[in-house]
Amino acid sequence: MKAKSVIYSLAILAAATSAHGHFETKCDDHLSVTMAPSFTTAEKFIWRGDFNGKASTSGILYVDGGNTYTAYGIIVSGTSAGSNHIPLKFTFDSNTTLNFTSYNVIDSGAFNSSYYIDIAFVGADENVTNAVVNANTASQIVANLDVSGEYARNITIGKGVTFNAQSLAIQTTTADTGTLTIDGTLNASGTLSTNSGSGFYTSNVVVNGLLSVGVDVSDNGKLNLAVNNGGAVNVTKLFETNGALTIASGATLTAKSFTLKSNATANINGTVNVTGGEFLLEKDGSAKPTVTLTSGAEINITSGYFRTRSATLDLVSGSTMTINNPYGSASITAAGVFYVRNGAELYITTTNSNTPVINAYNYVSISGKLVVEGGKWIAASRSGITLNTSDIELNGVPLALGNNYGSGGDFTNGGIITLNAGFTLDAPDSALLVAKQSSTQSVLHIKAGATAKLAGIGFWFNEEATKLAITLESGAKLLLTDLISDGGMSEYFGTLGDGDTITLIGFAENSIGIKNHTAADDALLSKINAEGVEQFYWVNDPSAGYWWLSTAIPEPADWAAIFALAALAAAIYRRRK
């Protein structure tokens, strides 16, 4: 359908051929122009948009359906910098193509002009499809979203219009900036970069359609990006911002790696996908980004990991984070604070047995659902990990009291894990691994009425002594399959050695039990102490299926069993000799 000028009767536009043979438009009377497909690659659009006191209505160039046009680029001209300028609108029918050959399609500096106007590439109506603007394969859109005088410059890619360019550079040098609005599709095969100069000003981009970037989104200023409902941003490599990021419900941002820089603020109501790298919350000194999630938000790290250097990430009720991590870096490294609230869900999967699941250098609180498949351990620092839920599936992955600073057994600095009142940690295949460092004491704190079911306790092999404190509040229980378990890492973890101690705080009868009792467990009783207790024993309770740690002297039948086990252990020892 050919665009009809009568629809745009408010257009103030006249056409003439300049002395240089270029297509020139300038503000004049109430006229409008339909382009003819007669330009060559040397032609330029020269827009003289200084309306000199006339009504501020848009100049319109029609790009008729079924035709292809080629021109050099756009020149913005006028009488003086900072004067008022009329917007320029390229209006497209369906199945229309406009080709630019200039290196910079929209660049006032490149064309020796400092006149800032609004430029739009839009469909003739809401039903337009397949309208295409092609920049030279070596070209870029330089969107100077600045103020000249007091008027900002805005660029719009309308619905039904696809703009293809090599790269997109957004330059802002003043405090009040315009906006790049993408209602259609903007494809940049290279990089989207921002540069604010020394003023650290903002660059504003609004995506209601699709923004596709072939390399990085590199923010050297403050990129304010809003991805609205139905909008999508796809970045082949790194996405970063130091400004305000808003991802609305129903919107998606996908990148190989994702970084919120130290001054960034993010409101995530939709979906963030990381496809092959890191989701990073950066810091700079005390400056750190702020992240707000709402119910329905999703963070999907399909191949990568999450790291916060100082900032807080709060998975609120109704939000979900999924991590599939094939790499060696911890799936979650929390040097900041990390919350999984009641009603939130966190899924972590790795096929790499040397990959830590969580390294909590700061505080981590799990109140929602946690499902772990594979990985080395979940490690707590002195700031601790608090478990406020029974909805935890560890699937054999150990808990660790201490931090991991390297591979193998480089495991140090005691940590704290707290199981809050009334909850059950049902992980009978997961060991509790304890760092060996005499200067710090690791703590397992089981609050009133809570129960921890674990495979056993493993102690890191080295010369330093282990100090493990187990705090048991009223009605709390610690139920172990075996007293000692290496968590599948027998070369690094095992039984208590010289100088190692387990201190019980709040001990009560029938609060600590082991399913599988051996003579070796009796030999370790001397390393377990509690205030006011001179001697501990293991007492069999067949009805419960446990041997309870007790201050009561065992019954004769129990002694017989104990002596039999001791004799068996001695016989095995002699045979090995």
What does this structure look like?
- This protein has 577 residues and is mainly β.
- Helix content is 5%, strand content 45%.
- It has a 27-stranded mixed β-sheet that branches.
- The protein is elongated, with a radius of gyration of 34 Å.
- The N and C termini lie far apart (97 Å).
- 49% of the residues are buried.
Structure characteristics:
single chain, 577 residues, mainly beta, eleven-stranded parallel beta sheet, disordered N terminus
Q: Distance between the terminal alpha carbons, to the nearest Å?
A: 97 Å
The chain-level mean pLDDT equals 80
Largest β-sheet summary: 27 strands, mixed
Spatial shape: elongated
Instruction: Give the helix proportion (percent range).
Output: under 10%
Secondary-structure class:
mainly beta
Low-confidence stretches: 1-43, 48-57, 79-83, 107-114, 146-151, 405-409, 572-577
The number of strands is 59
The fraction of residues in strands falls at over 45%
Number of helices, counting only DSSP H or I runs of 4 residues or more: 2
Radius of gyration in whole Å, from Cα? Answer: 34 Å
List the helices and strands and how they pair.
Elements: E1 14-17, E2 23-26, E3 33-34, E4 44-48, E5 59-63, E6 68-71, E7 73-77, E8 88-92, E9 96-100, E10 119-123, E11 131-134, E12 140-144, E13 147-148, E14 151-152, E15 155-157, E16 161-165, E17 167-171, E18 179-182, E19 185-188, E20 192-195, E21 202-207, E22 210-213, E23 217-219, E24 222-227, E25 232-241, E26 244-247, E27 252-260, E28 265-268, E29 271-274, E30 277-281, E31 290-293, E32 298-301, E33 304-308, E34 313-315, E35 320-324, E36 332-334, E37 338-340, E38 345-349, E39 358-360, E40 364-366, E41 369-373, E42 378-380, E43 385-387, E44 392-393, E45 399-401, E46 403-404, E47 411-412, E48 416-419, E49 424-434, E50 442-446, E51 451-460, E52 467-472, E53 477-482, E54 493-494, E55 501-505, E56 512-516, H1 519-523, E57 528-530, E58 537-541, E59 546-550, H2 556-576
Parallel strand pairs: 2-4, 3-5, 4-7, 5-8, 6-9, 8-10, 9-11, 10-15, 11-16, 12-17, 15-18, 16-19, 17-20, 18-21, 19-22, 20-23, 21-24, 22-25, 24-26, 25-27, 26-28, 27-29, 27-30, 28-31, 29-32, 30-33, 32-35, 33-36, 34-37, 35-38, 36-39, 37-40, 38-41, 39-42, 40-43, 41-44, 42-45, 43-48, 45-49, 48-50, ...
Antiparallel strand pairs: 1-2, 13-14, 46-47, 51-54, 56-59, 58-59
